[in-house]
Protein 1
Amino acid sequence: MRIVIVGGVAAGMSAASRARRLNPDVQVTVFERGADISYGACGLPYVIGGDVPSFERLIARTPGRMREQGIDVRLRHEVTGVDAAARTVTVRDRDAGRSFTEPYDRLLIATGVSAVRPDWARRDLQGVHVVRDLPDGQAIEASLQGARRACIIGGGYIGLEMAEALRSRGLEVTLLEKGPEVAGRMLDRDFQQRVRAELERHGVEVRCGTTVEALTGKDGRVTGVQTDGGLVPADVVIVAVGVKPNTALARAAGVSLGKTGAIAVNERQETDVAGVYAAGDNTESTHRVTGQKVHIPLGLTANRMGRVAGVNMAGGDARFPGVVGTGIFKTFDLGAARTGVTQAEADGLGLEAVSVDVDSTDHAGYYPDAAPIHVRLTAERGSGRLLGAQLIGQPDSVKRVDVVAALLHKCGSVQDLFETDLAYAPPFSSVWDVLLVAADRLGRELCGE
């Protein structure tokens, strides 16, 4: 059996490895248009900020290692077409400048996402960057030499992480956000305001409700960002306004897209075209709390989808369980996490939801270095079903979100959370952990106490 995989990062390499492990007789070929495979793009801000010593440390597997496992990895090979009827792909060797046809029995489209580049994000100016892959990170590193002022456009995960990275490099940083607050798609408003306060406490100038109109430049290099509120001078500009799934190849193969704009698949990662699978950031999934189709491109989701696709392409039977929208990020000394749906999202979906807020400490208050932690727990009125949680606190402390995420995967209730046997010792939590306090308070709220 011949398996062809388009894309050699998270989903693609997870699928390739799993397929070979399950069935050593399959022939697996991976075409990657870039010069690297299997790297952690989420680590780029931490290399730029100096927490990770080099971009090479982000590489999990080399092409040589994969070839030792019997996987034919071809770098700088771009798949430009798919003939689903003939079960062939057209491939362009970017170095040799030639194209050829490759047959397949099973095809995986793992083409990921691209950074959104609005019309004003001029490509002809040096110093203007997105943050998606290793070359992007290396280009930013080069642009920082001699730079004093940076402007980040977009207040999502990447924008917030890059704000810390660039401040740690000594740059003056201005963050522009079109919406009313930073972290707008991740947290409820008052939690967003806590994140903004942390940015400002560390010297980041935050301008929300700001629309970018153009970039200015001189001698081929960016000099500033023109907004509806005036000019922001900048030597380096980071455009972090979102991503879009790479679906051109899937559409060329006749594969249907979902309502999210990403590739539609079933639980086995199969598309509606025979023999064609999709996995990773270009693919939508089912939200286990809402039952709706969503496009939430995150590393674990991509790797898990890839494993499922690899098993099924090699003749096994695996199912992708869906997602609950769990996310986490750090900016300076603050960690923020969420899972399920926020109160604002629940309201938008028409769910009868109720939330409680609890302010506590991340471990016993009498133990040294106890720090504040803030929790919002959300549930469905009537049924008591957990809908989500948001946490703000010291970075390590907000990993508590995983407890709620696990219960959401099992359709857990507020009472289930309250009855969960959580670990206790003074250096780690209070005897009644903040999650248990929130569950107790929410349970009483649901009962009208």
Protein 2
Amino acid sequence: MNEHYLKVDFEPDRTLQDQIRERLVATILSGHLPVDEPMPSSRRLAEQLGVSRNTIVLIYESMVDAGYLVAMKRRGYFIAPAFHQPEDLCTEVVQDDEGGAPLWQQRFRRQPSEQPSIIKPNNWRSFEYPFIYGQVQHEFFPIEQWRECARKSLSGSGARDWIHDSVDSDDAALVEQVRTRLLPKRGIYVEPNEILITIGTQNSLYLLANLLCDARTRVALENPGFRDAFNIFKMFDADIHLQPVDAEGILVDERLQGADYIYVTPSHQVPTGAELSVQRRRELMTLASEHDAVLIEDDYDADINMQTNPIPALKAYDQDKLVIYMGSLSKSISPGLRIGFMVADETLIAEARALRRLMYRHPAANNQRQAALFLAQGHYDAYLRKIRELYSSKLQRMQGAIERYLPDMMTVPVSSGASSIWLRAPDYVDTEELSWMAAREGILIEPGAVHCLEQHPPHNFFRLGFSAIATHKIEPGIELLSHILEQYAARH
């Protein structure tokens, strides 16, 4: 009998069956088990791993069904003949150190890895005070309702709608939900052929920049602003103009008159959180009309706005189709879902659809259908009500704690619905260094220089997000951060 020792480092949030089966499959495929001996008995393996014998029996039977094992009466389970030659299955390639590998650095025409970018550590959950932006508290996500929608999308009739390649088409049910459920909340009423489903705001921006930009194209961006937007337009050689922002959002003046495209985040300016005033919105629309400019409106977090009557989107006032509107479900449902949408004149949408087909055809159809069901069944709106209440409570705590422990650091009044606060430390503070000091004390903050798009950015700004941190952690976290700032000041 095979006495192979199987080691499994169990993860608490995954089923035992899944983890043991994965380890067994990996061991079989690696060729580390003799093929002429039976697998360890269910009793022996159960004792070795500290699990029930029934668990091992169920795993073995599932692997028989999958073709990895064969059951022989009175002898046990054996590796199936198809897996007797692991070398045939091995995908490892031995590299020849003296071979002539291409000199990739000489071949690259663009190197996005060299662009400054926002860094978000993958281990942010391990921080006691994660003031990270763009993540959520997983315990508040309606996982049962999401699973219910997954089950429905996997049913016989549901699966037939998405299991085949849709070529360049989107899920009609999701398009209809976006058109009738999401966009009217922002005052936008369009036809299905004016909507394209994307895999998030960055994807929408990349499609637009690819279609619309070259070295002759002038693009105006907010500064400070969304770093990924800057990087994407720069990738396509656009002539970028940086336009200042203040407490009312982007400044609208003669400096914008030469722009072909003006990218704005009017609901909650990135990263300051400022809301574009009604007067500025009118001025921006007038400028675009008079100077033949197109507005690119990024409404990335519109649905988590806690205002009773939020200002409608710029697209709502777009009579001449001068506004390209981008929305996303990342901030409202889940950042990992990667579903967004673009709304524009049907001519532009058709061309973006053709480009998207060359890139990845369409977003995963099963994800689209699941999201459509989540919206149609009313789970989305119920979830939004809870999230808005939660964020409203967190925002009040953030403002109170900042006023108490970090006075005079707020740069603009925080509009309800923003899920982060943009702060300015004293001029001598380098928030990159501050972030390292804070991390050692379990506090995760976001240095602000990456959002300042000029060549020599200031280094004393930082952003505190509050969507992922537990409410009761906010005040002690900011109090501890104030003590770290005091230590920083003492050193400098």
